[in-house]
Write a structure and sequence with these properties.
Blueprint lengths: L1 E6 L6 H12 L4 E6 L9 E4 L7 H8 L9 H20 L4 E3 L4 E3 L4 H4 L8 E7 L2 E9 L2 H15 L2 H8 L14 H11 L4 E3 L9 H4 L7 H7 L15 H7 L5 E3 L8 E3 L15 E3 L1
Parallel strand pairs: 1-2, 1-4, 2-3, 6-8
Antiparallel strand pairs: 4-7, 5-10, 6-7, 9-11
Length: about 290
C-alpha cells in the first residue's frame, strides 16, 4: 500500500498533522509527498515536482491552455495532480495507491478498503453531490487504472472550458451552479464510464455501505464538525451536498464515542493545525 499526496504552492503545518494521522493507523505504509517547495515532512518521502518536467505526460498537460487565464492556481493544481500521480506510479511500479487532499484526517487502516472493495474496481472516489466528485478519498489500483482515467481527463481538457460548458449545458443547479473544475469533470467521466470510476459509500443508507462497513467523507462530514474555510462555523451543512441534506433533515447526529469509527476519514476544510482532530476521534451515527 502507498499514499501519494500532492501540493503546488506554500507548505502548511497541517500537512504534518495529516501525515501523522495516516501513520497512527497505518504504521508501515509508504507515504510520498509531491510538491514544489522542498520541505522536510516527517514520515513522508518528498519528491520535487520539477523532476517530472521532461516527462511526455506532463508536457502534454502543460501544453493544454486549460485555466491559463484563471487567477486562482488552485484549479490548475487540482487538475494537474492526477497526471503527476500517474507519472510517479508508473515510474515506481506502485499498486494499491491512496490519494486524498492534504487536509484529510484518517481514522482506519487502509486494509479496510483493500479487503472490502471489488476486485474489478479500477479507481474509487468520494461523491459530494449529483455534479461533483472530490478527493476526500481516492483509491487507484495501478498505473493502468490511473492512465485510463487520465485519458478521459485529457479528452475533456482538450475541449476547453467553453467547449465543456457547451457540451454539458444542463449541469449544476440553483444551489450548486456548474463550474468547470476537476470535481465536475470527474463526475462527468464517472457517469460516462462507470466501470472506470467507482464510488465509496458516504452515508449508511448507500447501497455499498454494508460492503465496506464504514462511511467516507467527501468534505461534508468534516465541514459539519469543523466548519468551512468560507467562514461557516461547526454545525454547518449544505443542502447542495448529499450528506448535508440528510443532516438538515435531522436524520443523523454525530456523536464522539470510544467505539468503532463509522467514518474512515474526515476532510477538514478549516486551514489551521488539525491537532484537535488527531488520534481517537471516533464517530458513530445515531
Amino acid at each position: 500500500m502507498n499514499v501519494i499526496l500532492f501540493n503546488f504552492g506554500k507548505n502548511h503545518l497541517y500537512f504534518q498533522d495529516c501525515i501523522n494521522q495516516i501513520l497512527n493507523y497505518n504504521h508501515d505504509i509508504k507515504i510520498y509527498f509531491i510538491g514544489n517547495e522542498n520541505q522536510f515532512i516527517n514520515g513522508a518521502n518528498f519528491i520535487n515536482i520539477n523532476e517530472f518536467n521532461n516527462q511526455d505526460l506532463i508536457k502534454e498537460f502543460k501544453n493544454i491552455s486549460f485555466y491559463e487565464d484563471d487567477g486562482n492556481p488552485l484549479w490548475r493544481a487540482s487538475m494537474a495532480r492526477f497526471f503527476y500521480i500517474e507519472s510517479f506510479i508508473k515510474q515506481n511500479n506502485l499498486v494499491d495507491v491512496f490519494h486524498f487532499d492534504n487536509d484529510v484526517m484518517i481514522y482506519e487502516n487502509f486494509n479496510k478498503i483493500l479487503n472490502s472493495k471489488n476486485a474489478t474496481d479500477e479507481n474509487i472516489i468520494t461523491p459530494t453531490n449529483e455534479f461533483n466528485l472530490t478527493c476526500g478519498m481516492m483509491y487507484i489500483k495501478n498505473d493502468n487504472s490511473i492512465s485510463k482515467l487520465n485519458e478521459k481527463l485529457f479528452e475533456k481538457l482538450k475541449l476547453g472550458v467553453g467547449g465543456i460548458y457547451n457540451n454539458y449545458p444542463k449541469r449544476g443547479s440553483s444551489l450548486d451552479p456548474f463550474m468547470v473544475n476537476e470535481m465536475t469533470i470527474l463526475k462527468i467521466i464517472q457517469e460516462e464510464n462507470k466501470n472506470l470510476l467507482s464510488l465509496f459509500p458516504i452515508l449508511p443508507t448507500d447501497l455499498n455501505f454494508n460492503q465496506y462497513g464504514i462511511c467516507f467523507d467527501p468534505s461534508s462530514w468534516g465541514q459539519c464538525i469543523g466548519g468551512t474555510n468560507c467562514g461557516h462555523g461547526p454545525g454547518w451543512a449544505g443542502e447542495h451536498h448529499y450528506i448535508g441534506r440528510e443532516i438538515l433533515k435531522n436524520k443523523y447526529k454525530i456523536l464522539f464515542e470510544n467505539k468503532k469509527p463509522e467514518i474512515l476519514d474526515l476532510n477538514i476544510n478549516i486551514k489551521y493545525p488539525l491537532l484537535e482532530f488527531i488520534l481517537d476521534l471516533y464517530i458513530i451515527f445515531k
